[in-house]
Design brief:
By secondary structure, the chain is of the alpha+beta class. The chain contains 4 helices and 5 strands. The chain has one domain: Gcn5-related N-acetyltransferase (GNAT) (Aminopeptidase, 3-Layer(aba) Sandwich). A 5-stranded mixed β-sheet has the order 1-2-3-4-5, sandwiched between helices. A hairpin with a 3-residue loop joins β2 and β3.
Length: 159
């Protein structure tokens, strides 16, 4: 297995993997996610994200692309109450279902973490929807700790 930075030619495999993740989100949060009419991540979007200095994609390659991680660097707001610093936000990590529980996710997370820390991040965080207990357990096993809880109040008559 090879973990490497993603390249433009990884686009189709990336879309396939992100499609698996999107399907889980649509199934569990249909009030928030819907089936798109076309590929939601265009080749232009992917190429632009690959070229940005504050963004990183990593792929796991073994008999093709079997996992992908994407994250960005964030900076604290320029307000005197915040410590000036940057952190890494692991936005997405998905491993093909046939390759789960083989250490692929761990290697992808570690690759993103190493990149973010090399770029000067003070910490790395990930966002996990409450329904995704498996993802929460995965990140907790890697040493991630709860940071905040986001609550929402839907409009009356909606989900």
């Amino acid at each position: 297995m090879i973990i490497r930075r993603a390249r433009a030619e990884d686009y189709d495999a990336a879309c396939r993997l992100f499609g698996e993740l999107d399907a889980v989100h649509r199934q569990r949060l249909p009030w928030m996610f819907k089936e798109p009419a076309s590929e939601p991540r265009t080749p232009e979007f992917f190429a632009e994200a690959l070229s940005r200095g504050d963004s990183a994609f990593f792929v796991a390659e073994a008999d093709g692309i079997v996992g992908i991680a994407h994250g960005v660097l964030r900076s604290a707001p320029d307000l005197p109450v915040f410590v000036p610093q940057r952190w890494g936000l692991l936005e997405s990590l998905v491993v093909a279902s046939a390759w789960r529980r083989r250490g692929v996710g761990l290697l992808l997370a570690q690759a993103f973490e190493a990149w973010a820390l090399e770029e000067g991040a003070s910490w790395v965080e990930a966002s996990v929807y409450d329904f995704n207990a498996d993802a929460r357990r995965f990140y907790e096993a890697l040493g991630y700790l709860p940071l905040r809880t986001i609550v929402r109040k839907p409009r009356a008559g909606t989900v």
